[in-house]
Amino acid sequence: MEILQTLQQEFRLQTEITENTVRLIDEGNTIPFIARYRKEQTGSMDDQKLREFSERLTYLRNLEKRKEEISASITEQEKMTDELAAAIDKASTLSALDDIYRPYRPKRRTRASIAAEKGLSPLAQLLNQADNNCNPLQEAEKFINAEKEVLSAEDALQGAMDIIAEKISDSAVIRQELRKFLVRNAQIMTKAVTEDPVYQMYADFSEPVMKIANHRILAIDRGEKTGALKVSIQTEITTALSLIGQKILPKQENACTEYLKSTIADSYDRLLFPSLERELRNTLTERACTDSIKVFAENLKQLLMQPPLKDKSVLGLDPGFAHGCKCAVVDIHGNVLDTCVIYPTPPRANIPEAKRRVLQMIQRNHVTAIAIGNGTASRETEQFTTDLLRENNLKIGYMIISEAGASVYSASKLAAAEFPDYDVALRSAVSIARRMQDPLAELIKIDPKAIGVGQYQHDMPPKQLDEALGGVVEDCVNSVGVDLNTASETLLTYIAGIGPAVAKNIVTFRKENGGFKNRKQLLKVNKLGPKAFTQCAGFLRVSGSDNVLDNTAVHPESYEAANQLLTLCNYQMDDVKSGNICELDERARKIGFKKISESVGVGEPTVIDIIKELQKPGRDPRDELPKLVLRSDVLDIKDLQVGMELKGTVRNLTDFGAFVDIGVHEAGLVHISRICNRFIKHPSEVLKVGQVVTVWVHEIDLKRGRIALTMKRSVI
User: In whole angstroms, what is the distance from residue 81 CA to residue 78 CA?
Assistant: First the structure.
């Protein structure tokens, strides 16, 4: 019950919604299915919020499990008290639990435990008494014991102080106070160990922990890992010791006070600060990684959901110098029609022959768009392409396509299975062409980390990153839906309820039976049972089915409701097939969604979704986004001038700004301060990957090949 109450408060949900959502997750339903087909039960939470809910549910359950483990351990030690049990029950984070359990956790031998073995605990208790007026050295003499290697009063005092120092370090209250103090007052400092120009700005750097940006944390971490930087946390020690003293020292000084002050300093220097410094560094890194993964996930979603370039045969060009430019033509369905290798650039630079062969490919295969990879020799290949188009008066647009991950895909087992007769380079050209046609269908074949829309992605915790990005890909694929008869095995794998084995069985069934005639046939696929069917059916389209609903996102469980809805609005299913249904929404509104909901037996959100699907069977949500902008000219960095106005496409968003493709080999950077006239915490508040924007050239660094852009005209 406590977990449900916590979730209800944190997500601001009604009790029933919270209980429903937990039950749906526990029943093994996938997030895409819950988000799309159980809106009435979840209050229409979207997939992202549902994933956050699921993650929080898991955390809280792990917290409860950890509480039970800790309680059992302390009880077994016969040290459990009512106060301790209450503190454990109240703990709301794993960190707080760890602080409570710290004194009771089994430890390896320490200076304190060795001192306790020597029988010095009573002396430690005596020193720590607030009203103590004893002479410490005289009391310590009573504990001299040669057999236990306590050879002097000083030895006894040191051992007692070691015991007190460890207790101070183990105090949950003190650790919490110091933790807050460090967050508010500490500085992170870096010094250069080597002369690495990459970390030049961090050669002698300091910034308050409270203010440091996440991308700087990740840069510092990487610099430390490579040995280029030495990193430390610095703070004002006197105040820190005073905070501890308020909890430990007696109000009235006595003969033991100086010993206690010395013990506090030792505990802070030897135990507390090193531990809290590591913890603070880890917390900063975790925060930065979590934020970076969120940015990466959002960028990836925007990239995958870019509108496809439909009904165009595309020529893909994978530029290169020594090994030439690889060419591949794919038809409107992505099938490879033609391939070749040309040499339009040095060292061979056989431009006439290259133009002849490419022109033949264009004419022979009715090419209507060209995709050029942005790697080595990209700009030279772009110039070659524009010259060819102009000389032959060809009205064909082109686009520079990110090659990120193309080489990873080309060398993969998946690419080898898909194109066994092509070498790695030609596979890359095919991938570039297909990326232009349908970014989602092509990019899901590549490990998301290799797509190049994140920051410091190779420094992220692999499991956390894979889960986040895998969730994004799953949500995107299911949001768009796939054609059951044409989708690749890889694409099918991401459909809710379908794993690699079932995806393979679907493709096998398709080959053996000449394709699917309707959704019901899914139940004939090996290992695809009723539960999997329920999860996946709504996301799979059968365009040639006799039932037009099979080509929509209407779930089979709602087919009867869809038919009843049409009848209420004086339509028939034939009207859906013919597209003669433009007034459906208007008629439904006149009747009222609530009344329709009560009549057909489904909730209002489902009624609204059914109406949208009936009005446009087979609709692709990406079609509603701005179309791709094809170029017809070429720019060199030397052609740019400060103040020049350009159109560009956002390629990547980071904490510090946006990288915009303006048709030059290197993307230009719009710093976060130059994105808009108001303060923003992150570029994603204003921009999206794939968005077309107007920019002005702010600064050009020809030597380093860097272009600074601005979206604020007044800055120029």
Answer: 9
